[in-house]
Amino acid sequence: MSNTTSSKAQSGSSVPVAADFRTNGAQSHSSDSSSPPWSPTSWTTKPIKQDAIYPDRKSVEKSLAKLARLPPIVTPSEIVKLKASLRDVALGKAFLLQGGDCAELFDYCEENAIESKIKLLLQMSLVLIWGANKPVVRIARMAGQYAKPRSSPTELIDGKETPSYRGDILNGYALDERALDPARLVRSVESSSQLIHDLANKT
Length: 203
What we know:
By secondary structure, the chain is α+β, with helices and mostly antiparallel strands. It folds into two domains: about 1-55, no CATH class; about 70-203, Aldolase class I (TIM Barrel). It has four helices and six strands; from the N terminus they run ββααβαβββα. The chain has helices at about 55-70, 75-90, 110-130, 185-200, and strands at about 15, 55, 95-100, 135-140, 155, 160-165. The strands form three sheets. A two-stranded antiparallel ribbon has the order 1-2. Strands 3-4 form a two-stranded parallel ribbon. Strand 5 (about 155) and strand 6 (about 160-165) form a beta hairpin.
């Protein structure tokens, strides 16, 4: 895919999602010592290899406005707790176990799928605790793996060129759902929040 450098779009034109977050026409920076410090919006200054181009600007703005009003998926205290656990892993005081899907579907946000993955992680961690004689930091690769980078924006199906499936956050796997839908951005956050809530109740 070609890189997207423009941060402006006229009403009714196709809109790259990142363009709506760019500020002051910021351009891409190289990752050297002269790069600006990290900030919540600094990612918008980086090159885009696989951009999402939405044809309806108003739909994108509607979804972005709703996302801005949603509460955070994780809390600062949870982040601090995880950093402390990862510090113990780096110091050799604990073992890190991470498992989950390469790419999730919204349909995976249901009780049976959640319980089976949690049960597997718990069983594996018990084996590691017994074998390594160390605490195990369990990280479930769940509640947010909705994007699926592809080598090409399109693919041939039955001799017909069609948009590639790029993960539930962008489009659907069914051929009649391959158009990019900005409403899926909101649904991905809602699904992640629900799944994390269920995980907290089961662990």
